[in-house]
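[job 4471] stage=fold_predict status=RUNNING
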Amino acid sequence: MNRHESIIVLERVSKAFNGTRVLSDFSLAIDPGETMTILGGSGTGKSVTLKLILGLLRPDQGRILFRGTDVGTMDEQTLNGMRKQIGMLFQGGALFDSLSVRENIAYPLREHFRHHDEMEIGKIVAHSLSLVGLPGVEQMMPVDLSGGMRKRVALARAIATRPAVILYDEPTTGLDPANTQRINRLIRELQTKLEVTSIVVTHDMESAFQVTDRMALLYNRRVEFVGTVEEVRSSSIPVVQNFIHGHLDAGNEMTVGV
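[job 4471] inference complete, writing structure tokens
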């Protein structure tokens, strides 16, 4: 794949913490508009990968490219400009408990897009909530929301800035089956409606099969396999079959909780 055609590229990335290697020679290219799912067992560096893409962590070796520019060489202003193009759905939602739903969603708009007046912000908040199936809840507080609603409000906040890329960190963790299915549908619907590139980090194979265009299997600190759902299902590689059948940590050499 020509890296210049990809929106995000990780080239032979390595990262260690306190002498323990988390990623080693990790390479992956993500195309504009696709949903890429990064699969791996607990502690295999999936969330670290998202932090590297955001520039919150720097690789020890290798580089990360965003639209062809090395994230590691960006100054703070350029890095902030890149982050404005990326929405993030955190594992726990990460809503501000002291702020209403409206103010939670408005927060990144006020921080990074100060040209919007309050009327515009209100329209963006309302539209974002409608996209996640929660119209009219602007005045509710996070404490009054169910787990599934909190996740959807957090997703509304992630899309309010109309990002080019959305990062999903374990988006269905802690949700019941009905809300898991709702989030899975939303990931697909938003990909189409907003024409965004999505990167989903998960260990949930069933969800991964539903939301993804391609999957990357993170195993022994690097990407061992990349392919479509059909290619993953038909693969004869033992580690891929182990993942399909739920043996996420089978043969994994490291289980650092990062």
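[job 4471] summary: Residues 250-258 have pLDDT under 50 and may be disordered.
[job 4471] exit 0
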